[in-house]
Amino acid sequence: KTRLPGYCVFYDECGRNPLLNNTLIDPIVPCLNYTRAKLVTGDHYKILKQVCPMFDQGESSTYACCTIKQLGSLEKSLTLSKAVLVRCPSCAYNFAHLHCINTCSPNQSQTVKVTRVMNVTEQNRTREAVLGYQAFIGKTFADTSFQSCKNVRIPATIGGYAIATMCGRYGSKLCTPQRWYDFQGDSSNGLAPLDIDFKIIQEGDTTGLPEGVIPYNGVALMCNETTPTGGDVCSCQDCQESCPSVLPPSPVAGPFTLLGTNGYLVISIILLILLILSFVLYLSVSWWVASQKNKKKGIHRGKGKDKDSDKVTEKIIHPSEVTCAETNSLAAQAYLSSQFRIWGTIMASYPLTVLLLSLIVVAVLSVGLKDIKLTTDPVELWSAPNSRARQEKEFHDTYFDPFYRTNQVILTAPGRKSHIYDSLLFGPQNFSGIMSKELIIELLELQTRIQFWSDDLNRTASLKDVCFAPLNPNNPSLTDCAVNSLPQYFQNTFIKKNCNQHHITDLGMSCMADYGAPVFPFLAVGGYEGKRLLEPLAEAFILTFSLNNYARSDPKFKVAMQWEKEFLKIVQEYQKDPKNSFTFAYMAERSLEDEINRTTAEDIPIFMISYAVIFVYIAVALGEHSSWKRLLVDSKFLVGLGGILVVACSVLASMGFYSWIGIPSSLVILQVVPFLVLAVGADNIFIFVLEYQRDVRRPHETREEQIGRVLGNVAPSMLLCSLSESVCFFLGALSTMPAVKSFALYAALAVLMDFALQMTAFVALLSLDARRQDNNRCELLCCIKVSKQRPKKPNKGFLMPFMKKYYAPVLLHRYTRIIIVVFIFMFCGALFLMMNVKVGLDQELAMPQDSYMLTYFQYLNKYFEVGVPVYFVTKKGFNFTSVEGMNAVCSSVGCDQFSLTQKIQYATNYPERSYVAIPANSWVDDFIDWLNPQSKCCRLYTNGPNVGHFCPANESGLICAKRCLARPDNDTVRPTVAQFNRYLPDFLTNRPDLQCSKGFVFGLGAYDKAVVRDESGEIIASRFMAYHTPLTNSQEFTAALKMARELADKITQGMRLVPGTSPDFEVFPYTITYVFYEQYLTIVNEGLFNISLCLLPTFVVCCLLLGLDLRSGLLNLLTIVMIVVDTVGVMTLWSIDYNAVALINLVTAVGISVEFVSHMTRSFALSTKPTRVERAIEATAKMGSAVFAGVAMTNLPGIIVLAFAKAQLIQIFFFRLNLVITLLGMAHGLIFLPVVLSYFGTYIIFLWVLYV
């Protein structure tokens, strides 16, 4: 028939399409009827104006090719689709425009060609119905309509696009105008009542056009245009053209540069040059001053011998040369020595009584161990209770449920060949080997195997007893459990329906999980690199079980732990099965704690061996070994054992005391404190015992008096080190980090207790051993005496003579002392390296090297397309019920361009800076859309007993004919305060339903726990969920936290400008990782503060105990600072990250450095040799040998054993770092410090006493 303007090709309704079943709406098809368009008047006109306003020419001039019934069916169909598009009025208008043209256009015959008809009988009347037609559309209209809709979002789908639900398997990224229209015309989509073949025709192209057809090319609206019905422009989130000009974030600050190169390197080089020049200048000036002084005054010297019978040159001193500081220094030493001499004599005189009293004190304190609490929770260890992250976590967990427990399997099939699948839509596709039916079925079987007997429930338990079930939390079935996997796209019905890849779009499968939520691609498959869901290159299946995070006191917590144990057991058995087709990684919520506990238990023998090696060394090294006949007499096995027991008792007493007062311990304390106290204690033991062995009893002096005199000589040095370390650690307890604070407290008291027991119990033990040795009795076999008498000469051993004769003279020769330049170079180099040390602790390092968690972390970083979810949480004080309040939060039409959700959207435009990958969902946006009268989501009962109450979308329209809100003139829906408060509870409890097009993301399950209201109905907490980008290391996690907080602060500032907002209102970001990584935002400053506090007492105590000797104190401090700086520099070279564990070791390094340095400094200061070089040689020979034997050689064997530990944390932070600390401490204490003292050490004059 001739295609003329004003003619229809179909008109009126003929009944249901006989070819379609199980559709979302009745598939009513039109009757074939070539007739003139009808004039519409009255109600017909009003409905047409409402549904298809673009045809309105006035009531007397409007023609259409549709009846009232057709308009009703069209409106019903449009309602379901427009509900997801209504956020953008111009998009919804264009969408309606297209279908109105096909259904009601008065020129229908010119744009539509019928392709299929069939006789349909309805109410005993048979008519010819249209079951398919071609619709011809101009390309400009088609493209403009598509562009207006392609960016419209569905907030609850976490950044998802509405177009993704309307373009079939192409999704949003591969959707085109043609594919969009093809899906709309596909009768299998549940909405189209018949098949429509859309033909998009380029303007001017008539190729293949039927005669008389004129492609429709009306005016389509851009998304930033208002609609003829008064609709506002679309928001920025739904329309890029509506976005304001937003400045991109400032570029990342580049590395610090000077002169075009690394600034820290330049500064280090300049500092190196200045220090070397200063040193050379000092030497030159000193030489010139000394030569001039010698010429003028001459040098008067006498000859003599020291107490070791060594010839020395004695400098004749005038009283005026004795300074006040020197007088004070020696006076202080004399006083301390006399007091310790008296104390030592008393302790040695009553050894058994002293040992008994010491044992009682230790026992009383150690009883507190019965109440010891071992902190294993990482949150309690590394996050301060009053820290921002902890407070935010407490707020979140108080008002919302704690983050659910995650149990996950990531499966790949690398050995399977890819295969070609000839897709009707995509054509031949090369699918990866993992995309196969049998593997998907195998995955489904794996997720249904876990059942076990629960003693707590007294019955067989399964997933449903502990799972997170968002839609049915009180009495969930297995299908209510939140299990995310690829089979959930088919509601886990692969086995029952025996589906295959050719039928994945069967209408019965809604691409929602059987527990009622949408399945997001990034939670179901991995490695598809952001492309469409079933991307042929997807490399991994992801299976995630979400369990409720019960409190530890809840009986179901044990059930959840047991379920996870069975989960791990089954997965591990499955992994070992040679028949399985997967290569996979897995984890349970309990895995981290399990693996840490496992490796701790496995490494206990390593620590025991380490202590055993140290004990054997001490026992052997303390012996005199003057003759093999006296080997059992002169050995110090029991003394060494006693020294170890003194260390153990001091640690036990410290732990017991703090357990009494309720300060918990940790594994870090158990591992580090004994090592620290052993280093301090062994050093003091060696100094004391070696001094006693080198001493000769004076005439008429008793053994007890000799022990007291020897103690008087060395105890001030022991006091200097112990007091410095103890005060250092007590000040370290000012740290805000719980693990560092508790470690510092335990270490401080343990060092004090160690010193106290050395001054009491160990003195008594040495007295008993000396009595045995004097009587020539064998050790362990005390009844046996030997005839060989003890030599009269003091036993200097091997080390002291070697250092005195060879090492010290060579080190302090005028030419070799230039080695100080090497240490200056090391210090400057370490300063440069220190600026490049990595801050953080990657979670992989907490795992042993054979842990399955390491494979899981690798898979996680490789296959996951997004990172952890991040919530933007609002606190009390914001009025969500006002129009201004809603506009300040939402992102749909009419919302502020810088609202909460819009600012998050802007952040996702720069994911590499913001670390936000996907925009936040928004209950405010979806609540507004749910209320929109253009959808059927919010209706009221008009019949029955519930008249006036909320009516779910699955109820018939006959009894629910009234919308909750009237349609606004400008299509911008905003409820009044009363309407907001009335319908919000209905929205939050509305069970998802496909009858409400966006119902599957509304209400219950999606938002019921996202909004918290008090008794008055005020919203006191709410949250908006987005997703971070994939975060792979500590630096990225820390940066993500920092950027999220900056974003939240900007949101807070904007929302506080809304009238009625409380001035203390706040928005903060929260995710489960923030509480662990917050420490890295401040750990550098925290470390500088703690280490500075530790350095302070080393200077102050040294000055005080040396009689206000500032120079010795400064040299002491300088050397310790260099050790710490060099240690951090080596950390950079040896890939040791700076974190809380490293900080604890650096604090320990200060304590150990005190042992290497302070004894030497004091020995030099009190030496009576006339020149600095001679005094440095004496201090190096006497005290250096004891320090080397007591600290370096005590630590090194035990540290080396730790290299065999399985735990990477122990290998890195206990073996590597402690080895570095010990070697650098030894180098600085035995090489650098003697040389520095030989240049800059203080003078304490030998013969000044003669003049006093």
TrEMBL record:
GO aspect biological process, one term: cholesterol metabolic process
GO molecular function: cholesterol binding; lipid transporter activity
Domain of life (superkingdom): Eukaryota
One Pfam family of this chain: NPC1_MLD
Reactions performed catalytically: cholesterol(in) = cholesterol(out)
Domain (SSD): residue spans on this chain: 603-768
Nucleotide-binding keyword on record: no
Subcellular compartments: Endomembrane system
Transmembrane stretches, start-end: 264-290, 348-369, 604-625, 637-661, 667-690, 710-737, 743-768, 815-835, 1087-1108, 1115-1136, 1142-1165, 1186-1205, 1225-1251
Main localization, broad class: membrane
Cellular component terms (Gene Ontology): endomembrane system; plasma membrane
Topology term for the membrane: Multi-pass membrane protein
Gene3D superfamilies linked to this entry: Multidrug efflux transporter AcrB transmembrane domain
Keyword list, A-Z: Cholesterol metabolism, Disulfide bond, Glycoprotein, Lipid metabolism, Membrane, Signal, Steroid metabolism, Sterol metabolism, Transmembrane, Transmembrane helix, Transport
UniProt record similarity statement: Belongs to the patched family.
This protein's name: SSD domain-containing protein
Organism: Astatotilapia calliptera
Lineage: Eukaryota, Metazoa, Chordata, Craniata, Vertebrata
